[in-house]
Amino acid sequence: MKYSVDVKEINYGTIVVDAKSPEEAIEKAEAGYTMGNTVWQSGEYELSDAKRVPDRSRDAR
Questions:
Q1: Distance (Å, rounded) from C-alpha 58 to C-alpha 51?
Q2: What's the rounded Cα separation, in Å, for the pair 56 and 61?
Q3: Using CA of residue 1, residue 45, residue 11, residue 39, what is the dihedral sign?
């Protein structure tokens, strides 16, 4: 049997940038985040709501 399980993930990290203002720092950090330049310190996750997935292979006949 297959099940679909919901996942909630929260991570905490930092991105170090050179900038002339807080606004520029946030812009550069967003660019760095999308490029995968975040240093992750910690995180947490939660799994919930397991639902059975119907087996569709029998329907293909």
A1: 19
A2: 10
A3: negative
pLDDT of residue 59: 60
Comparing C-alpha atoms, which of 52, 51, 47 is closest to residue 6? 47
Read off the tokens for 9: 């993930």
* pLDDT tens-digit map of 7-53: 999 999 999 999 999 999 999 999 999 999 999 999 999 999 999 99
Place of tokens 């099940």: 3
Helix (H) or strand (E) holding 41: strand 39-53
DSSP structure class, residue 27: H
What is the length of the chain? Answer: 61
- Token pair recorded at residue 18: 């050179």
pLDDT higher than threshold 60 for residue 61: no
